[in-house]
């Protein structure tokens, strides 16, 4: 019995010894692999630190910038070319790198110019300055496709033709404060909302109207007045049938004019909104 136990102990000792050897072997293999990985990483790093690597990377960034057309991408490409020139002064890529850098600078300058022109177009539209808007659009024409040019032109037309939304009180008052404000809107296309018809002058085909303030017009008919000529309105016949005793609230779109110390709109559209009051 004792011999058998010793035999088991001997066998166990041998097995443990073998396993320990395997573990040590695996550990050694792992250490060797780790060293190889470190060496490979160093070799890869060295390969990257070559003029060829920097040139190819810079060219790829330049091609990407040509597609995205952003200054940031061109700057990234330019930075790589400049690195190549600085750290590899004897490289065969120096001449081409300088050409690419010049192309980057030209592209960046062009993008900035285009953005500046677009901003000028936008600002011209906000000022309702059609002459400046179209002038800036023509400057942009050489940089964009014909299709893009037509699309932007249509957008400008739409924006310029949007009437300014103003109130009659802003335009003119009997208190003598109207003239300075009136000049701001002269010959501009306006939309004036919530006007109340108080009299119709058939001979001039016009409305005498007053701003609707939610009160009876007699409470403020000496404060604000605006004459609306609607000869150009499509609903002219319908307008002339309205009496001041049964007149609706209206919106008017038209061009503001001033003559004989009186402001009036040459209306292109009269919009009937609701019941009289």
Cα distance spanning the termini: 122 Å
Q: What overall geometry do the principal axes of the alpha carbons give?
A: elongated
CA radius of gyration: 41 Å
The SSE string, one letter per element, is HHHHHHEHHEEEHEE
Known CATH architecture of the domain at 164-272 = Beta Barrel
Question: Widest sheet: strand order?
Answer: 2-3-4-6-5
- In terms of DSSP E residues, the strand content is 15-25%
Structural class: alpha/beta
Average pLDDT metric = 76
Q: According to CATH, what is the topology of the domain at 164-272?
A: OB fold (Dihydrolipoamide Acetyltransferase, E2P)
Largest sheet: 5 strands, mixed, barrel
CATH first level of the domain at 164-272: Mainly Beta
Detailed description of the structure:
The chain is of the alpha/beta class and 277 residues long. Among the domains are: 110-160; 164-272, OB fold (Dihydrolipoamide Acetyltransferase, E2P), CATH 2.40.50. It has helices at 2-48, 51-68, 71-87, 94-126, 130-140, 146-160, 168-171, 178-185, 236-240, and strands at residues 164-166, 189-201, 206-211, 226-229, 249-259, 262-272. Strands 2-3-4-6-5 form a 5-stranded mixed beta barrel. A hairpin with a 4-residue loop joins strand 2 and strand 3 (206-211). The longest helix has 47 residues, at 2-48. The radius of gyration is 41 Å and the shape is elongated. It starts with a helix and ends in a 5-residue tail after the last strand.
């Amino acid at each position: 019995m004792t011999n058998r136990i010793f035999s088991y102990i001997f066998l166990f000792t041998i097995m443990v010894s073998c396993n320990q050897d395997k573990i040590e072997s695996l550990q050694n293999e792992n250490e060797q692999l780790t060293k190889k990985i470190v060496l490979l990483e160093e070799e890869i790093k060295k390969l990257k630190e070559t003029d060829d690597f920097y040139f190819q990377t810079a060219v790829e960034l330049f091609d990407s910038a040509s597609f995205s057309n952003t200054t940031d991408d061109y700057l990234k490409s330019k930075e790589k070319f400049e690195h190549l020139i600085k750290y590899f002064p004897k490289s065969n890529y120096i001449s081409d790198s300088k050409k690419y850098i010049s192309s980057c600078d030209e592209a960046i300058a062009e993008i900035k110019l285009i953005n500046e022109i677009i901003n000028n177009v936008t600002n011209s539209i906000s000022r309702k300055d059609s002459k400046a808007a179209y002038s800036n659009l023509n400057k942009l024409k050489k940089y964009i496709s014909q299709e893009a040019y037509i699309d932007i032109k249509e957008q400008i037309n739409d924006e310029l033709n949007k009437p300014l939304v103003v109130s009659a009180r802003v335009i003119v008052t009997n208190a003598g404060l109207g003239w300075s404000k009136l000049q701001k809107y002269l010959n501009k296309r306006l939309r004036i909302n919530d006007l109340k018809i108080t009299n119709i002058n058939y001979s001039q085909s016009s409305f005498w109207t007053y701003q609707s303030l939610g009160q009876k017009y007699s409470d403020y008919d000496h404060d604000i007045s605006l004459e609306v000529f609607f000869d150009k309105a499509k609903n002219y016949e319908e307008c002339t049938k309205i009496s001041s005793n049964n007149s609706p609230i209206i919106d008017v779109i038209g061009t503001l004019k001033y003559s004989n110390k009186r402001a009036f709109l040459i209306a292109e559209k009269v919009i009937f909104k609701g019941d009289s009051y």
